[in-house]
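This is your field. Pick holes in the following sequence-structure pair:
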Amino acid sequence: KRGFTGAIRPHYADYFSASKDPFSQDPDSGLVSLAKEQLRCVDGLVQGVEKNAGGMLLQGEEGAGKTTAALELIRRLSNSRVLCAVILKPEDKELQLMRSVNSELYASADSQGIREQLISLGSRVSQNTVLGGRTLIIIDRAERLTEGCLKLVQYLTRLKTLQTIRIARRAFMER
């Protein structure tokens, strides 16, 4: 029924008016339902981005829906002038992390050194700012950042034209 092939739970299509199987490996984003706490969290993050609040930390227990909330934030910001880099699995080395960020922001990621990577990022952020946009870097699993990568993210957070959101488990603060 309604686009389902075979005998894949067709009764869910009628009940939820789903156009595809809600249990597939490629779920329909229209079926995502956030809890009240997640919605409040996303609202707060949207306000933080709009007010250029700088560095933000989203933390919670494993499985609490932090990444889902961040993806909802990106969905909400999709019609605004926010250039966003989403790093779901941060790299161990500073240079690799910067290459990932620059790649996500469509800045040059070919540079050999960290200094050149930072210059490339700065150029891209400045270009975006001149066009009236904001730049946001979201780093999931921030509790896994090495000390060097954490210092790099803290440095980026101090830049006035760039915002960061670190997503981490509660244990991150005990580090």
In short: The CA atoms of residues 108 and 120 lie 6 Å apart. The chain is about 40% helix and 15% strand. The longest strand covers residues 162-169.
